[in-house]
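Design review, sub-item: ligand-bound model
Attendees: FS, YL, KQ
YL presented the inputs for the alpha-D-ribofuranose complex:
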Amino acid sequence: MSAVAVVGSLNIDLVVRAPHCPQKGETVIGSAFGMAGGGKGSNQALAAARLSASSHIIGCVGSDDFGRRLRAVLTENGVDCSQLQTRRDAPTGTAVITVTDEGENSIVVSQGANSLLDDKAVTGAAKIFEDSDAALFQMESPTHTVVTGLKLSRRHGCRTFLSAEPPFSLPAEAWGNIDYLILNERALSFYAGKKKHDSIASMANAVMNRGIKCLVVTQSAKGGTIFAKNGDNFSFDAFNIRSVDNTGARDAFCAGFCVGLCEGMPLKSAARFASACGALACTKIGAHPSMPWRHQVSALLGEASGDDYEL
Ligand code: RIB
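KQ shared the predicted structure:
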């Protein structure tokens, strides 16, 4: 069993379905409303646990009902919450999400207690890094904490994964401590400092030159491309599914990619495994409810290859 430490955000998602996302100044009449657990960190920790990894979350919630709900769901699903702080000085993070009838989302996050995740919280989790194969980070926590966590987890022998969403500038010292960087096209343009006619490959080269080992560029329904330090680059396909809500799909992808590699899958198999996780996460409404279980991923991979897929 692989062990994964996830440093990141926990939110309660307030989700409204609507025919389209509102433009500036527009009021849109939506339809169904629901509340579910979310936050990029908690989605990834939950997905890792459901994929059979030993999963640990390092994060902060408020001392309120939302925080208690998140802790309960993660604990029930086998995520270790011993380094999940309950803070009295801020509410639990919330995200207001619009999901269109095509299954696309737009998200506004109120960080709440997530903004209190400080260096002390990650240094206090040193033992978890020591016992883990990998550490997963996103950018809904303070950048300084992410950088401290990258350095510390690497020092304790973890492979480091950064899903840099939403993208914020990173200090120079961060880059050399990232093994796997996972970006969507928007984040890729941000970090590459895109010029008008730049291709994905040229932007990826610019990012690779900063010293990371492997860059994954995800392109939703188009799949994605992996750029490796040794030049062994390849594209991977997305699974053909009908998306009802893509919220959390990248988180499921990241967790799947990380768990796959920690289990010793070659890069191509890990990318396919991760794509299956991302696809399954689009088939249900809400982030937490849609994080896939291992048996569902194995079934999808088996179906797609036409025979039993052994992982
Ligand atoms: O990646 C999806 C997540 O982004 C949502 O669950 C929401 O909480 C925001 O953090």
